[in-house]
Amino acid sequence: MKRMLSVIASITLLVIPFAAQAQFAKVEDAVKYRQSALSIMGTHVGRIGAVVKGEKPYDKAAVEADVAVVAMMAKLPWSAFPAGSDTANSKAKPDIWKEQDKFKAASEKLQADVGKLSVAANSGDLGAIKTAFGAVGQSCKACHDNFRSK
Ligand code: HEC
User: 144 CA to middle of ligand 1, Å?
Assistant: First the structure.
């Protein structure tokens, strides 16, 4: 029994790294998935942006809820960039696959910055939220400048 369990465990370990790539049956599905996550992320970033710019009154719970959605969405798109998925209806640049490390680093930078925004949102300090939000915006822009076509 013990031996069988360890065999199952090692098979599982072998299979998991491939799962991310194999999750999408069609390239179009991956494109749709990542664009959806990015779109939802963008909507909630926009809502926080309105508060940061003073267009909407600051409501701690609302900002926390928006940041929670952003944090979840910021994890999702990156496993949905299979090689060659710069299809006609995608703005992904081929550089994503030429400079994979740089692209990965940009996605990790975003998630780290969103983590800091989350801490700021929980603190209820609008000044800290503004600072952290600025860094998140820089992360979005840096990656778009390099890896998203106009
Ligand atoms: C690591 C790179 C990267 C980061 C970081 C990044 N994006 Fe993007 N984003 C892309 C790429 C690439 C596309 C184009 C995807 C496609 O069309 O296949 C895109 C597309 C989008 C879209 C369009 C989605 C649609 O409807 O097609 C929105 C909105 C968006 N990003 C918002 C943001 C916001 C807001 C941030 C920061 C909070 C951000 N992105 C951070 C790479 C990034």
Answer: 7
